[in-house]
Specification:
With 486 residues, the chain is of the alpha/beta class. A 5-stranded antiparallel beta sheet has the order 2-1-5-4-3, sandwiched between helices. The N and C termini lie far apart (81 Å). Strand 11 and strand 12 form a beta hairpin. The chain has 4 domains: 149 residues, 2-Layer Sandwich (Beta-Lactamase); 175 residues, Rossmann fold; 76 residues, Orthogonal Bundle (Helicase, Ruva Protein, domain 3); 45 residues, Arc Repressor Mutant, subunit A, CATH 1.10.10. It is built from 18 helices and 14 strands.
């Protein structure tokens, strides 16, 4: 019964095994009975000699209790059946029944059933011994298939959980530039184009890539990520494209590359600007032909993968400097997404800080009641060269140092954040301060901040703020702004 290892599901086992058993025993009817389950209703097979329909599962189930104290396997003539089963068995023409229990984790989980329906036919001692061995093997097969199905359900549940964590709604940000980013991501995810994500380290490039994958038609397949700067060239080539046995010292067996692993899904090539020139050529071939060759191999392997490339370096500048292939750049630059650094979206800092505070407070089982005003002003005015990742680390550290039951104060922040000169204090509502005053003050501060960040390039500033250049010039004149202001 080597076929036991070939069944891929419990339903398949229940459908096909009884026929195998009937052939091995020469029985008229064989079946598997799993009480209170669907399997028992379909787990029966009959030979051509058996044409009388009968509720075998009802007979076998009635024997489960009666046989609980009996030695297994149990061989019974019709005359030895319990009264409630004897009449049914006689009407079906059954002459002899053979039962063996199936056990899972030391508990009975079902029965293996066989019968003869010709007068005078009985099961031999050899049949009993065979069924005993088969029941032991079958019990293990059932246990393994149930474990496999349970793990498959849990994996699917985890996949949906991961997908929900990486959907667009959970990329935190309400600033104007982030709202525009969300709009772009929704359209990009619905397509299958190659995407180039540019942004400073820590700005969330992988999070954006995962969001594109989770929101697209490939979300049921794998998302695979590889940092192109993390491995030396020969190891990176093997990691990306795989290798065949004997391709190099230590290649003791064939190995799939990440392109094959990501087949049908999405492959994030992080820090693509650091990919060695030779591998840039091989990647270009993949993008052109949709085929790879393993290291040491000769046969092309077709792969269907959506490529998302990410870099913290302006790739166009890398091309100009001769450090990145221009033909590969144009293949990757189908849809370019530029992630704004955190200093250019300070309005999102309070939201992000509170999100991280809630998360780390729960993880450390520590009640922290928000931020003091002084602490939040320091966070908002710090430039965050490490972007969102640096803010995340800062809040985690502060939660560790904070006092339970109190707001997170400036004293819990690191020296570099506390050294920030909080130069701009927005007006507070009150006597002489109207809503119009507050709105104009926020507008003035945002315009000054974006102008300074872009070295007073008015065209770029207007584009970032969603204004016409003439509209920006009017606001600069109305607020009497000059390049010296900060």
């Amino acid at each position: 019964m080597t076929q036991l290892a070939t069944f891929s599901s419990l339903a398949e086992l229940t459908e096909e095994f009884p026929s195998l058993l009937a052939g091995a025993l020469g029985a008229d009817t064989c079946g598997l009975i799993f009480p209170c389950s669907e399997e028992g209703s379909r787990g029966f097979a009959r030979t051509e000699r058996s044409c009388v329909a009968m509720p075998e599962s009802a007979i076998a189930n009635s024997l489960l209790g009666a046989a609980s104290q009996s030695e297994m396997p149990l061989r019974l003539l019709v005359s030895e059946l319990p009264e409630r089963s004897k009449a049914v068995a006689k009407s079906a023409g059954i002459s002899c029944i053979l039962l063996a229990e199936l056990r899972e984790a030391e508990e009975r989980c079902g029965m293996l059933y066989a019968d003869h329906r010709q007068p005078g036919m009985e099961f031999s001692e050899t049949d009993v011994q065979l069924v005993h061995v088969l029941a032991t093997l079958l019990s293990k097969a059932v246990e393994n298939l149930r474990l496999k199905e349970r793990m498959s359900r849990e994996l699917e549940s985890l996949r949906w959980e991961v997908d929900s964590r990486h959907c667009f709604a959970n990329i935190i940000g309400q600033s104007l530039c982030m709202q525009r980013l969300f709009s772009i991501l929704q359209r990009v995810a619905a397509s299958d184009v190659t995407v180039l994500v540019e942004g400073e380290s820590g700005s969330g490039k992988e999070l954006v890539a995962r969001a594109i994958h989770a929101g697209g038609k490939r979300r049921q397949a794998r998302f695979v990520a590889q940092n192109c700067a993390a491995l030396p060239e020969h190891l990176l080539e093997s990691e990306l494209f795989g290798h065949v046995r004997g391709a190099f010292t230590g290649a003791h067996r064939d190995k799939k590359g990440l392109f094959e692993v990501a087949h049908g899904g999405t492959f994030l090539l992080d820090e693509i600007a650091d990919m060695p020139p030779m591998l840039q050529v091989k990647l270009l071939r993949v993008l052109q032909d949709g085929k790879i060759r393993r290291v040491g191999g000769t046969d092309p392997i077709e792969v269907d993968v959506r490529i998302i490339a990410a870099t913290n370096k302006p790739l166009e500048e890398e091309v100009r400097l001769g450090r990145f292939r221009s033909d590969l750049f144009y293949r990757l630059n189908v849809m370019r997404i530029e992630l704004p650094p955190l200093r250019d979206r300070r309005d999102d800092i309070p939201l992000l800080a509170q999100h991280f505070l809630d998360r780390f407070s729960a993880e450390q089982r520590k009640s922290v009641e928000g931020f003091t005003q002084a602490a939040m002003e320091l966070l908002v005015n710090y430039d965050w060269p490490g972007n969102v990742r640096e803010l995340e680390n800062e809040v985690e550290r502060a939660v560790v140092l904070s006092n339970p039951g109190q707001a997170l104060s400036a004293a819990s922040l690191s020296d570099k954040v506390r050294s920030v000169d909080v130069a701009i204090h927005p007006p507070r509502p009150g006597v002489g301060v109207t809503l119009k005053d507050l709105v104009e003050d926020v507008e003035r501060r945002v315009i000054v901040e974006v102008l300074n960040a872009n070295k007073w390039n008015k065209s770029k500033t207007a584009r970032i703020l969603g204004l016409s250049r003439q509209g920006l010039l009017k606001k600069i004149a109305r607020f009497d702004l000059t390049p010296e202001q900060d």
